[in-house]
Amino acid sequence: MDLISAAPTYSNPIRLRRRGVEDYATSFDAMRAFTDARAADTPDELWLVEHPPVYTLGLAGDPAHLLNPENTIPLVKTDRGGQITYHGPGQVVAYLLLDLRRRRLMVRELVHKIEQAVLETLAAYNLSAERVAGAPGIYLAQGPNAGPNAGAKIAALGLKIRKGCSYHGVSLNVRMDLRPFLQINPCGYVGLQTIDLAGAGVDVSWEDAASALAHQLGRQFEAELYD
Q: SS3 letters for 138-158?
């Protein structure tokens, strides 16, 4: 299904850029450059990216959460909030470059909308998931009828706000080698289990999952996506 339109009808649409497989440092530098160069009328953008293996550490993150400093996966210090996480093949990363003032969004509302987009994406695949208070991101639902992966983290979120604009965003695990998560305390939580859509029983391609997430992000921000 085509989820983007060549002729947006909303007054404040979002440009969708599919950047493919891209080194994390390249995306990071590009996000900062885009934000620094923004003008009042610069259109907002949503970038969909897949990164080669990399650990990223938030602005106030503790390097001790990397449990094996001798590992061969690079560690990059970045300027988003949060602790340490892993990006790698089979994970959809959605970077949101939004003018919050123009959209009249507070940071708390921004986070809520991003998380809701992930929840709606998972619901479309018949997966029940939830927020956890004080721990940004999305987790498989817990409860009396939950399966063995209840409470596992499937999506991570980290943002930076500069000049009233956001960058960084959310990552959704689709079909990954999850072993690198065992070498860290994901998002600073000791023993936190991580999972992907494949491990939760959902057979979907990276491209389809990326399109589904982009569609739900567009809905949450009441914006038509265009390229």
A: EEECCCCCCCCCCCCEEEEEE
